[in-house]
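<purpose> Linking amino acid order to shape
<body> The protein record starts here
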Amino acid sequence: MKSIFDVKKVHLIGIGGISMSSIAQILLSRGIAVSGSDQSVSTLTEQLKQNGATIYVGHAKKNIKDPDIVIYTGAVGNDNPEMIAAKDKAIPIIPRTVALNDILQLHQKIIAVSGTHGKSTTTSIVTHIMRHQIGEISYLIGAQLNETKRAYHLANSPFVTVEACEYQANFLHLYPTTIVVNNIEPEHIDYYKSIEQLIDTFRTFAKHLPADGHLILNRDDPNASQLVDHIGCQVTTFAIDQAADYQATNLTTTAEHTTTFDLLIDGNYVMTIEQALIGKFNVYNTLAAITACHRNGVQLEGIAQLMKHFVNSERRFERLGKFSGANVVSDYAHHPSEVKATIDDAALLANNKLCVVFQPHTYSRTKNMLAEFATAFNAADHIFIADIYAAREENIYNVSSKDLVDVICKAGKKAHYVGNLKNIPAALKAVVDEQSLIIMMGAGSIDDFARKMVDK
């Protein structure tokens, strides 16, 4: 088997994930029979079912019939009954990113966006610009593109954009022609034992680039800047705080909740950009995207207008509606740096009371980053902490959300433990009014809860 497109039947373990479901949809579009399993039914699994996939709820050996190949997601361990059944039947088993690379290799120009933060937003901006500047392109994003309401598209185009995740070094299965590195911070501590190991993994990924490829780095990030050494292709830098090939200056937040900045290329003013994205971190995302597009031949003319009308992907400071008169947004932030950046920028908006409801994501991250989380909420007026969303983990770390509440309080802010998500509405009703902004924050189930909570 040379690629996943050489087989007739594929089974996907963890088919309900955003990336796995995209791969499954692409396989279905190519006439390949698809089956798959996940722990629960979702909108994504229902869409797959409607398109002809066989969906199993729960993992069991009997779900493995006679596929030609099995694809598994990173959250699946070797003790998964379907993994065991596939091995017993000598069925080839490959990780998600190997299948993803087979899709990418259908294209000549592969733009991979990596980094600890901002991958989905940056990939979405690159995709948005390219779709409008050069026509339909292929894309595989970790969130639905707002303008298409899809996280994937397979087009007859030389270009494809992809979100490249560093978890378990998964992106080492990918071979792009352009790599963007937004930033590198300690993350996935259950896998990476040191920041040096994480940087080395990014460096190995960068070495996948061909000689005529492009490595695009955030010069303001000291860890990402280390990748310049020993890379045998063109390196382009972007930055805000120091001179770079592409630089943003004169950042301003407007009363209309937009951000403006001046774009300089090689020190020369090019244009002023206004975007409906708040925060310095989103300027980095846009700057990285513009750099990637321009280095791949996209004309700059028209980009300012495109960014003015760009709407970010779901769960990226997404406005959901109102609750008890207060505006409610959903945000995917789950790393301390993301949490702090989002709250700090939200505090600059025109609201009197900023209420943050945070659902920590994974026991390992919560345990290992308690000190960093302690001061991440300083700009919030009211802080509510829900139970930890376990995701792929067991609580071998002996940590709970009460520990997070304790360190926040010891750092000088008052935080409240709410436990189960169902307790959130009552807690909010006691403090919010029409002048409040509620941020429902986290990478777990809090988003679904928030959507059900808001007034329709």
About this structure: Residues 239 and 247 are 5 Å apart (CA to CA). The mean pLDDT is 92.
